[in-house]
Amino acid sequence: MDIFRIIGVGLLTCIVSTLIKVIKPEYFVVVIISGSMVILFMLIDSLSTIFSYFSILSSKAGIGYELFSTVLKVLGVGFLTEFASNICVDSGNASIGDKIILAGKVVIVCLAIPIITSLLGTITSLLP
User: Fold this and answer.
1) Is 32 exposed, middle or buried (0-12, 13-18, 19+ CB in 10 A)?
2) For residue range 71-85, what is the model confidence (pLDDT) as tens digits?
3) Looking at residue 107, what is its pLDDT?
4) Which residue numbers in the chain have pLDDT < 70?
5) What Å distances lie between residue 100 and 1, 69, 112, CA to CA?
6) Do residues 12 and 31 both lie within one domain?
7) How far is it, in rounded angstroms, from Cα 113 to Cα 108?
8) What's residue 1's pLDDT?
9) Using an 8 Å Cβ cutoff, are 111 and 70 in contact?
10) Where in the sequence is the domain holding 122, given as residue range(s)?
11) 58 and 121 belong to one structural domain
């Protein structure tokens, strides 16, 4: 299972970063980012499976590509902002991580405007 390899890389990254922090603190963030990127690359196959499944679901439900792509963008922004924020927190910059989360939330709201507009249009068309 992939989860065991991912956990292994994560634990190895934690151990190495702890050792590096004592010996060469300037490389601490590089080790954290490198380990995180390896884990992200290990998830690419799973992410492609999720995207293809969502594509099948949207075509069966009759949802337009624009709304489907917007939902995927919202999910991507959410995951990426959390990923970047956690790296900032791990490197000791929690305040920057908080700003990244705030920016991610603002971008998500902006991306969700077409979905909200479509939902309101559907609701008003159902009203007498």
Assistant:
1) buried
2) 888 988 999 999 899
3) 95
4) 1
5) 32, 22, 18
6) yes
7) 9
8) 62
9) yes
10) 47-128
11) yes
